[in-house]
Amino acid sequence: MAMLEKMDPSARNRALPNAVQQLIKKDSAAAIEWMRNEPDSFAKFRAISESGYTLGREAPEAAIDLAKEISELKNNALSGAFSTLASQDLDTALAKAEDWKGDPQYDNIMSQIASGYARKNPEEALAWANTLEGNARSNAMSNAMSQLASNDPTLAVKHLDDLGLSADDQTYQNSFKNTASNWARQDPVSAAEWIDTLPDSNMQTNAIGDVADRWARIDPVSASEWIGVLAEGQARDQASQRLANRIQREDPEMATAWAGSIGDENTRNNALSNVYSQWIQMDAEGGRAALEASNLPEEIKQNYRQGNDQQNVPQIGRQFRGDSFGGG
Questions:
Q1: Which of 25, 91, 191, 246 could cross-link with 216 by S-S, CB 3.0 to 4.6 Å?
Q2: Among the residues of 152-264, which ranges form H helices?
């Protein structure tokens, strides 16, 4: 921290958050003393806010106590602290949480306790989360299920059935998303087999899209074979769009074929526009020639002829560039 005093104010302010984080890792007690004694300023509070999670991980109990004094620590420090503390000593974490009842952070605290406890024992954490009420219960159960799904997706599926919740319940929907996403990330083939057994629903449709995306990353040929036998409809359309988006850089012709196989006209045009936009970026002449030979509506082609490739890629076509469950 002494080196910061030699910097001009602007450079010091930029370097301060990283310096505080390094001090926390080296000597958390010294970092806490600095937070208490440093004169108040925008730079100080920005540094405290950005380093709060690190303090929570390195010195959880001290961070929890300090957050009562310094409000800028609440969000990040409490998240890191309660998650870490619960993985070490659940009883202490719960006792500390009692002091935050009635605070807007309380639901998040219980959620972080579930997350930390679940890293140690996800099944016990899930059972504990089920004893809570309201938003705290929903958030804690979702976090516990997410950790369980990360550890063992097949076991998470079993617990999905044991939750005793309807498919309309937000807790169930969050848990389903976490399970499907984690399973697709680890083993898309097994995830696809599970999803094939599920009844038609919006959740199944989104899960199919996520599996298609994950599978296409590691084996686009096998992913395309699976998509090819899906029943026509929204789920297959979404899977085809995700596949086209995933392979458009490596094989734009195949991506065009998959985008063109989509049944819904609006979705198909959006997917094709997305593929052609990428193709033109990589190979302007070849991409534009393919675009002109396509069956896309004339008004879409005209947008590209005017040189407005990027701003005219439809938003629906862009929404599938990320994962449906929040992953990348």
A1: 246
A2: 153-162, 170-186, 188-196, 202-218, 220-228, 234-247, 252-260
Residue type, 112: Q
* CA atoms within 13 Å, Cβ hemisphere of 254: 13
The tokens for 155 are 């076991």
- Whether 54 and 80 have beta carbons less than 8 Å apart is answered as yes
Q: What is the model's pLDDT at position 326?
A: 39
Task: Please state the rounded mean pLDDT for residues 134-142.
Answer: 81
**Model confidence pTM above 0.90:** no
| CA dihedral of residues 84, 112, 161, 150 (deg, nearest 10) | -50
Tokens of 153: 């997706």
Which residues, in sequence order, are CB contacts of 56 under 8 Å at separation 6+?
Answer: 63, 64, 76, 77, 78, 79, 80, 81, 82, 83, 84
DSSP conformation class of 230: S
Quote the pLDDT of residue 23: 95
- Angle made by CA atoms 207, 209, 212, in degrees to the nearest 5: 110
Contact 81, 102 (CB under 8 A): no
Q: How confident is the model at residue 40 (pLDDT cuts 50, 70, 90)?
A: very high
Residues 6+ apart with CB under 8 A from 285: none
Q: What is the DSSP letter of 7?
A: S
Q: For residue 199, which amino acid is it?
A: P
